[in-house]
Design goal:
Elements: H1 2-22, H2 24-31, H3 41-69, H4 80-106, H5 111-135
Length: about 140
């Protein structure tokens, strides 16, 4: 359970860094937000609360998914990093990438927004997978 909580905190920090100093302006522009827009503090707190809840569910389910990999034959012969990378990559490829592709095409989002979001999702999965694989 400690590994899940650490993953929640690290993932929250990664999200903050990714969508604020690193790509915040580009993401906001691609989402159509004015550059000088300041979110309502109540909306910001609500968003952060739901992000923490989402990060907890993400980490908890990912921990169980990683544990399920241990039942694959010969997986015990694989390095921990390889196991974490496999878990992150296949979850990203099967669940995150298709959703982002659909959103980009159907919702007419830009490919720049697609890359900002999909790279974040992959890195988030990878960091979380590494923490959960090495910690448990």
């Amino acid at each position: 359970m400690v590994a899940v909580l650490v993953t929640v905190v690290v993932n929250f920090i990664l999200g903050f860094l990714w969508y604020t100093p690193l790509f915040g302006k580009a993401w906001g522009k691609e989402m159509g937000y004015p550059a000088d827009m300041k979110p309502d503090p109540k909306v910001l707190m609500k968003g952060m609360l739901f992000m923490v809840i989402g990060n907890f569910l993400f980490a908890y389910v990912l921990a169980h998914n990683i544990e399920a990999w241990s039942f694959v034959p010969d997986m015990d012969q694989t390095s921990q990093f390889s196991m974490a990378l496999s878990s992150a990559f296949f979850l990203w490829l099967g669940f995150y990438l298709p959703g982002e592709l659909g959103a980009t095409v159907w919702e007419k989002h830009s490919w720049k927004l697609f890359f900002i979001n999909t790279v974040y999702h992959f890195l988030s999965l990878l960091v979380a997978s590494v923490i959960l694989t090495y910690w448990t």
